[in-house]
Structure formats: structure tokens, C-alpha cells
Amino acid sequence: MDTRYSFETLISAEDLAAKVSELGEAITRDYKDKDTVFVGILKGSFIFMADLVRKVQLDRLEICFMMVSSYGSGTRSSGNIIIKKDLENDLEGKHVLIVEDIIDSGNTLTYLKKYLSNRKAASVKVCTILDKPSRRETELVPDYRGFEIPDAFVVGYGLDYDEHFRELPDLCILHMNKEEA
Ligand code: IMP
Ligand code: MG
Q1: What is the extent of the structural domain holding 72?
Q2: Is 63 within the bounds of a domain?
Q3: For residue range 69-95, what is the model confidence (pLDDT) as tens digits?
Q4: Residue 155: CB partners within 8 Å, gap ≥ 6?
Q5: Residue of 41, 68, 71, 77 to test ligand 1 pocket, by largest number of atoms within 8 Å of CB
Q6: Which position has the higher pLDDT, 71 or 163?
Q7: Which of 104, 143, 151, 160 is an active site residue?
Q8: If you take atom 19 of ligand 1, which residue's CA is the nearest one?
């Protein structure tokens, strides 16, 4: 047991699952009969993507992933985005839905929406399971949103702290315990 951290459940695995089903129904209604590409943003979205694609019913769905990072100072992202893994898929005339774990400043998605629109997609929308609107630095508003959460650092359901804790089934607030002397 790592005594440096403690975990406070913010959203249970059951509540996450129920919300993913709701999002899946809404997306199924809106994207029916469209050529659709879900673009997951690695790594944080991998669990949400896996759950979401099993809750939509779309005949012409492609699933792909990009990996991006933003270099900035500390835990805050900047507008300077580096694409570490790009898409191979042809997006021309297709309806793109970006699948994200959390929107914080909004810098990553503001950049990605523009980048994917430039690849001649018919539309580019955003679906995020979590949103921290109080931290926004851009005007980005997600088209589909699971939960609005307060300004706390969360882990689990795919989200990490220093590459750890992605596997936790519940979404938890991470607390740093004081170092023992
Ligand atoms: P943005 O460009 O500031 O919106 O950055 C969003 C990215 O920051 C997400 O995809 C996450 O990888 C990361 N992030 C933001 N808040 C948290 C958090 O509370 N826990 C874990 N990762 C976070
Ligand atoms: Mg991330």
C-alpha cells in the first residue's frame, strides 16, 4: 500500500457506466447513417473509448487514436501541442467525433479541432466524459459531456498521475499525504 496518496471516490464505476450508456444513445441518434470516425486521444481516453463504442450502434464507424502532448509548465497545459502519433485515416467528407477523457484548459482540443477540420472532415465535434469548466482558458464547449467536475486532480477510469492509477475503476480525487518525517 502506497502511503503517499489517498483516493476519494468522486464518481463510481456504476455511475460512469450509466452515463456512458446515455452518451452512446445520444451519439447513435445524431450520427446514424453518417460516415463517422471516433478519434480517441491517448492515453487517457482508452477506457472511455472502449466503453463508448460498445454503447453506440452505428453501421459505418471507424475507430482510431492520436497521441498528443502539450509542453507547458508544471501540471498546466499550454497551447503548444505536439502530435506524437497522427491518424492514418482519410477524413475527407467524414464526421469526426473526438473522444477525450477530460477537458481542463481546453488548449489541447482547441488545437485538435482546428487540425482535424483542416483535413477536410465534414464535421468535427467533441465528446468528453469529464469537464472542468472552471479551468478553461479557451472558448471550447464540448458537444457531448459526461460529468462536470470541480477543480480537483482526478485519477482512474483512464486518467493518470505520472502514468499511474489509470486502472482504478472509480474516478477518484487524488490526495497527497504529508511526508512523514
Ligand atoms: P487541456 O489542454 O488543459 O484541456 O488538457 C487536457 C488534458 O490534461 C487531459 O487530456 C488530461 O490528460 C490532462 N488532465 C487535466 N486534468 C487532469 C486531471 O485532473 N487528472 C489527470 N489528467 C488531467
Ligand atoms: Mg492525458
Answers
A1: 14-150
A2: yes
A3: 876 555 566 668 899 999 988 999 999
A4: 7, 161, 164, 165, 166, 168, 171, 172, 174
A5: 77
A6: 163
A7: 104
A8: 153
